[in-house]
UniProtKB/TrEMBL annotation:
Top enzyme class: transferase
Assembly with partners or alone: Heterotetramer of two alpha and two beta chains.
Catalysed conversion reaction: L-glutamate + acetyl-CoA = N-acetyl-L-glutamate + CoA + H(+); N(2)-acetyl-L-ornithine + L-glutamate = N-acetyl-L-glutamate + L-ornithine
Residues forming the catalytic site: T196
Entry's family note: Belongs to the ArgJ family.
Name under which the protein is recorded: Arginine biosynthesis bifunctional protein ArgJ
SUPFAM superfamilies cross-referenced by the UniProt entry: DmpA/ArgJ-like
Species assigned in the record: [Clostridium] asparagiforme DSM 15981
Length: 413
């Protein structure tokens, strides 16, 4: 038997947990000849939790899901479309959320208020409801709990993503094996808080709604809110967490050992999905990770890490495999966090090795050629030690390439 707290990665995504099924279809909403709708369904009622964009301009699905999650109704299904965001669509956009939920409720014989909806794509366009409704009725009989259906659903929600994103784990709660899985999409318009992303996490764990929401709200601070691709916070950011309790573990109602294990698994899922999005930023060639160590407080470390990860000049240097450490120190300096630049040590790390670039704010005698090799890997890390305390924080982003501009110059076409 696995030890308490041990997390084991398993194949799959949103269908890994007991009782969850998924389906997808090509509805022709915007994309041609590719799946662009997905559905997640639970055989049993779920408690739900959610976190949403902090952009004042919020898409209709965000408003709909807030009402469902915060209203307390049990959740049974999620309908997702790619291609059109249903954002800035006024009263009609909200009505379309209701029509989507109504069609799903009829197709699955579940209450309308148990249906969550999500959209991603172009802002300002109205959904083609005839195709949405046709897609829902096409998916209902295709719902399946196999790994393949979950993967197909993850692919169906992609927009400018170049790869689908999913992960699943199993762990122990009260002596019972519990599973948790998730899928997400996100490639551009990504910046805290949160990012242009949709993320759906499912688990068969039994846990109270209050603790489910608390666990999710806390975890997004160190995962989704620590990634950035381009500095733009989307109108549609949504993270939904559904728990149907079908694993049969003792219901988690307090912050005990089981709750800690649950949070640990949730963090693994969310961090993995967050890094997959950062590493698939529009046009990018590398995942860029920034670790701040030796900070005085966690908040100081977060501010410093985010400032570096969002620096366009730093991101361009990573694309050029150029160890231009001055850009990193500069980004730390304008972050607003207080530190002594003359005490900072900086390292670059990747699969090609680790090397120190500056010590106490001054460049060391390093090889530019070696630095280029280290920075030429698909995953690159910058570690900055500010020597003030023991707090740490990590942020994730990507390099800035020519292709980012190309992708976003004609996104609507």
């Amino acid at each position: 038997m696995k030890k308490m707290g041990e997390i084991r990665k398993i194949p799959g995504g949103v269908t890994a947990a007991k009782g969850f099924k998924a389906a997808s279809t090509a509805a022709g909403i915007k994309y041609k000849e590719r799946p662009d709708m997905a559905m997640i369904y639970s055989e049993a009622d779920c408690v739900s939790a959610g976190t949403f964009t902090t952009n004042l301009v919020q898409a209709a699905p965000v408003k709909w899901d807030k009402n469902q999650v915060y209203g307390g109704a049990a959740a049974r299904a999620v309908v997702v479309n790619a291609g059109i965001a249903n954002a800035c669509t006024g009263k009609e956009g909200m009505e379309y959320c209701g029509r989507t939920a109504g069609a799903c409720a009829a197709a699955l014989d579940v209450p309308e208020d148990s249906v969550l909806v999500a959209s991603t794509g172009v802002i300002g366009m109205q959904l083609p409801m005839d195709r949405i409704e046709t897609g829902i009725y096409a998916m209902a009989p295709l719902l399946c709990d196999g790994e393949e259906s979950g993967t197909k659903a993850a692919k169906a929600i992609m927009t400018t993503d170049t790869k689908h994103k999913e992960v699943a784990v199993e762990f122990e709660l009260g002596g019972v094996t519990v599973k948790m899985g998730g899928m997400c999409k996100g490639s551009g318009m990504i910046h805290p808080n949160m990012c242009t992303m949709l993320s759906f996490v499912t688990t068969d764990a039994a846990i109270s709604k209050e603790l489910l929401q608390e666990a999710l709200s806390a975890d997004v601070q160190d995962t989704y809110n620590m990634i950035s691709v381009d500095g733009d916070t989307s109108t549609n950011d949504t993270v939904l967490l559904l728990a149907n309790g079908m694993a049969g573990n003792p219901v988690i109602t307090g912050k005990n050992e089981d709750y800690a294990a649950f949070c640990q698994a949730l963090n693994y899922i969310n961090e993995t999905l967050a890094k997959k999005m950062a590493g698939d930023g529009e046009g990018c060639t590398a995942l860029f990770e920034v670790k701040i160590v030796g900070a005085d407080t966690k908040e100081q470390a977060k501010v410093l890490a985010k400032s570096v990860i969002t620096s366009s000049l730093t991101k361009a240097a990573i694309f050029g495999h150029d160890a231009n450490w001055g850009r990193i120190l500069c980004a730390m300096g304008y972050s607003g966090a207080q530190f002594d630049p003359e005490r900072v040590d900086l390292y670059f790390e990747s699969a090609a090795g680790s090397m120190q670039i500056i010590k106490d704010g001054v460049a060391v005698d390093y090889s530019e050629e070696q630095a280029t090799v280290v920075l030429s890997q698909p995953e690159v890390t910058a570690v900055a030690d500010v020597k003030m305390g023991t707090a740490t924080a990590t942020a994730w982003g990507c390099d800035l390439t020519f292709d980012y501009v190309k992708i976003n110059a004609d996104y609507r076409s």
